[in-house]
Amino acid sequence: MVKILVTGAAGFIGFHTARRLLARGDEVVGLDNLNEYYDVSLKKARLALLEKEPGFRFVKIDLADEKAMAELFAREKFQRVVHLGAQAGVRYSLEDPHAYVRSNVTGTLNVLEGCRHNGVEHLVYASTSSVYGANTKMPFSVHEIADHPLSLYAATKRANELMAHNYSALFGIPTTGLRFFTVYGPWGRPDMALFLFTRNILEGRPIDVFNYGHHKRDFTYIDDIVEGVVRATDRIAQPNPDWNGDAPDPASSKAPFRIYNIGNNRPVELMRYIEVIEECLGRKAEKNMLPMQLGDVPETFADIDDLVSDVGYRPATPIEVGVRRFVDWFCEYYGYRR
Questions:
Q1: In which element (H, E) is residue 289 found?
Q2: What confidence score (pLDDT) does residue 294 get?
Q3: Of these four, 48, 49, 211, 265, which has the most CB atoms within 10 Å of its CB?
Q4: What is the mean pLDDT of residues 177-192?
């Protein structure tokens, strides 16, 4: 049994990750501030399920609270940390940029300091495909530079990767960053396209289709993400003995530092994604075709070769399976009839 801190435990990915760790017998302390970025009742419903597990304890703390975070780490002496708590959402970062710096930059600094001073053996943290920003070479590779983010959200996540490398290099803390690609599935976030599309179609309202439907996304089912997170947590980051400062590899280091993509490795056109939702609901969507939004990117596509070779896992759930599971959960949870 391993004692693990999971930040963002009431969030979408944090909830599923905590459940998976508990299922295999780990002791999990779940941290969340239950902010109101989206429906708090959904977060509380996730927590209620976690709190039924004997190995789970919840602490309500804001990541940006330096004193509370320091006290938590000193008291609990975690063996590993899975840092999934963050202010999420590309578009909201245009409206409230300060929230992203508080949560994602200051909050992550407090996590790193906690690991530094309390002997944490491995920190795994969430990054995002959004860090690739203006990059156009496909598929996105962790071995390519990702220094042209197009949203403040992406910039804060790229900052997290650089901060993690700093702590790995200075203090020898093993850190692994995971760049998630468009995660979806049951208990998902209400601000995500699948949630919005499903609700609007069921209620007979139009759906907003940005970039006139020409987006492509590497939609990745939540169970695939969680399997990658757990396997990465168990594989403590090691220095790369072949790392060369004359030709630096962004995905590794002479320090115990790694970055991986976790994506389905099969981009899907947005219009096909909508078709699958329509098939699962047995209804057609009324589409409101719109231009691409500020901060958005036209396509994501993950190169996952390193994930496969290092942790032995390849995400593989097709959208036809994953979307149906989401729709089944959504209709049951919210009481919709198809």
A1: strand 287-289
A2: 79
A3: 265
A4: 96
